[in-house]
Amino acid sequence: MSKFYYSISDNYEDIFQPNDKQISFLEELAHGKILDVACATGKVAKRLQDDGFDVMGIDLEEKFVNKAINKNKIDAKCMNMLDIDKLRDNFGLIYCIGNSLVHLDSSEKINEFLKKCYDKLDTKGNLVIQIINFHPFLQVDDDYLGNLPTIKNEKVKFVRKYFRNGDFIRFNTVMTAGDKSIENDVNLFPITSDELVTLLEQNGFENIKIYGGFNKSEFDKENSRPLVLAAEKL
């Protein structure tokens, strides 16, 4: 994972920017201290912080963490998401968005992460997960599974394609910025909405809600591209 993100780190904020629906969704569930898991350069955390919330972030990529601290002025640490139990604080909201969860390479590791999230949440605390809805990809009987819309603006073009790779899905990207072009491949673990809900329930989460986006659209397992999930520790 680190090689993939390191290679696009200089252009990451040109590719991915927080949007108002995303921020509103998180703020509706926020109270107490907030933890951004896989915070990247800290742009989402900064938006929340600017709105008065107490936020810290963690990310495995040191270059991202340095930008989060020095550019976006976020309290951030270089840390594996499986080590959140080592953090001193508990949180009213933990969120892991941007398809970061599925960089964990097994359901066992995802389960371990969810358990640690539950333990680090305050009572009435919320967990938000956002990943790709992998169910439609898993129905395709071909090595090429499909793509997401190309991100293109005046600074960068970012092409995203998905391929079958055994029990994993190979995420292929090509980023073009000026005369620079970088191609990457990284394996993702294609956990489905049903599997994720089962793990959450097994770890004690309740009030689990699934949406087809941060706009709270209805989730359609066959057709939705994003999968946004919110769960509560009672």
TrEMBL record:
<feature type="domain" description="Methyltransferase">
    <location>
        <begin position="34"/>
        <end position="125"/>
    </location>
</feature>
<dbReference type="GO" id="GO:0032259">
    <property type="term" value="P:methylation"/>
</dbReference>
<dbReference type="InterPro" id="IPR029063">
    <property type="entry name" value="SAM-dependent_MTases_sf"/>
</dbReference>
<protein>
    <submittedName>
        <fullName>SAM-dependent methyltransferase</fullName>
    </submittedName>
</protein>
<keyword id="KW-0808">Transferase</keyword>
<keyword id="KW-0489">Methyltransferase</keyword>
<dbReference type="InterPro" id="IPR041698">
    <property type="entry name" value="Methyltransf_25"/>
</dbReference>
<dbReference type="GO" id="GO:0008168">
    <property type="term" value="F:methyltransferase activity"/>
</dbReference>
<dbReference type="Pfam" id="PF13649">
    <property type="entry name" value="Methyltransf_25"/>
</dbReference>
